[in-house]
């Protein structure tokens, strides 16, 4: 029940205003508790006279909330008894307790359930029976996400993915990233020591061009820019751009065209710099937290 209390003086008489969502029985209980209360069409609220009106209204609203919670829990228990949820992820006690493997989907769904809360001691989500209908509505998605997040299921997916082309391409890409090298057109090299944008690694700083020619066999799917263009390529050594460097970098006025992207590097736009700066700040905060610990 949404409610609001406001201290108010009406014609120099002390009192307080109270407003809550319309419910005929609640209004009857309110009128019984506050026989001198008067309704204001202009303010859409009840005025209760008296110096202690504010405390009295707060106490009444708390009692109403407790009564509605008990009533909701009773209805929820009846609904659960009539049509229970049978799942290894759900335990029934004085409330409903949900334990699942970690899953972002499960977290999002449970956070959307009214009055659901995480209990650190129990290592479970506690859901009062008054929220049973909402929990039941979301349960198929919660259970599916929990099953998907089971360790055995994750292991099975990893093993199945090892034979896929996508997995092999990802492994190859990670191996290339660890080498910190990048094919650059020999006749159109980027400026050294300044942040530039790349197709594969985002905004980086090239600090060395070895002059070593790139063999055609080394131009794998990790470097589609070099595969699309004729001419010699040489290996450039790169590192991640630091936050101060990204802040000092002047953005390009317009996004890179097809020709700039095909060569593999270009001057970053403001939108690209903002993303890189945000990521750099996150890296900096994590490093500071590790150092502090």
The rounded Rg comes to: 32 Å
The end-to-end span amounts to 45 Å
Number of helical elements? 10
Strand content: 15-25%
Give the overall shape. elongated
Please trace the helix and strand order, writing H or E for each element.
Answer: EEHEEHEEHEEHHHEEEHEHHEH
Strand order of the largest sheet: 9-12-11-10-13
According to DSSP, the number of beta strands is: 13
Biggest sheet statistics: 5 strands, antiparallel
Which structural class do you get from the secondary structure elements?
A: alpha+beta
Which regions are unreliable across 5 or more consecutive residues at pLDDT < 50?
none
As a percent range, the share of helical residues equals 40-55%
Total number of domains: 3
Mean pLDDT over all positions:
85
Per-chain topology:
Layout: E1 3-10, E2 13-20, H1 24-33, E3 38-40, E4 45-49, H2 53-82, E5 90-92, E6 96-98, H3 104-111, E7 117-119, E8 124-127, H4 132-148, H5 151-161, H6 165-179, E9 181-185, E10 195-198, E11 202-213, H7 224-227, E12 233-240, H8 243-248, H9 258-263, E13 265-266, H10 270-292
Antiparallel strand pairs: 1-2, 2-4, 3-4, 5-6, 6-8, 7-8, 9-12, 10-11, 10-13, 11-12
Description:
The structure is a single chain. By secondary structure, this protein is α+β, with helices and mostly antiparallel strands. It has 3 domains: 78 residues, no CATH class; 68 residues, no CATH class; 113 residues, no CATH class. Helix content is 44%, strand content 23%. The chain is built from 10 helices and 13 strands. Strands 9-12-11-10-13 form a 5-stranded antiparallel sheet. A hairpin with a 3-residue loop joins β5 and β6. α3 runs antiparallel to α4. The longest helix is centred in the N-terminal third of the chain and has 30 residues. The radius of gyration is 32 Å and the shape is elongated. It starts with a strand and ends with a helix. The mean pLDDT is 85.
């Amino acid at each position: 029940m949404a409610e609001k209390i406001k201290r108010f003086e009406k014609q120099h008489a002390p009192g307080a205003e109270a407003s809550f969502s319309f419910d005929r029985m609640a209004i009857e209980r309110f009128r019984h508790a506050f026989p001198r209360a008067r309704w204001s069409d202009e303010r859409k609220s009840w005025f209760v006279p008296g110096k202690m009106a504010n405390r009295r209204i707060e106490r009444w609203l708390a009692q109403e909330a407790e009564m509605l919670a008990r009533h909701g829990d009773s209805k929820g228990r009846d609904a659960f008894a009539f049509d229970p949820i049978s799942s290894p992820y759900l335990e029934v006690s004085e409330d409903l307790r949900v334990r699942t493997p970690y899953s972002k989907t499960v977290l999002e769904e449970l956070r959307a359930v009214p009055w659901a809360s995480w209990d650190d001691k129990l290592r479970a989500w506690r859901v009062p029976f008054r929220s049973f209908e909402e929990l039941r509505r979301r349960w198929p998605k919660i259970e599916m996400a929990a099953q998907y997040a089971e360790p055995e299921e994750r292991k099975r997916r990893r093993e199945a993915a090892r034979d896929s082309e996508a997995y092999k391409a990802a492994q190859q890409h990670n191996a290339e990233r660890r080498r910190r090298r990048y094919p650059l057109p020999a006749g159109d090299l980027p400026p050294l020591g300044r942040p530039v944008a790349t197709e594969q690694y985002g905004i980086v700083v090239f600090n060395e061009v070895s002059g070593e020619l790139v063999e055609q066999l080394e131009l794998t799917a990790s470097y589609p820019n070099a595969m699309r263009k004729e001419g010699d390529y040489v290996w450039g050594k790169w590192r991640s751009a630091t936050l101060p460097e990204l802040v000092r970098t002047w953005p390009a006025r317009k996004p890179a065209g097809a020709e700039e992207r095909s060569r593999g590097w270009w001057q970053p736009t403001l939108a690209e710099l903002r993303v890189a700066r945000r990521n750099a700040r996150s890296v900096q905060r994590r490093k500071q937290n590790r150092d502090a610990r």
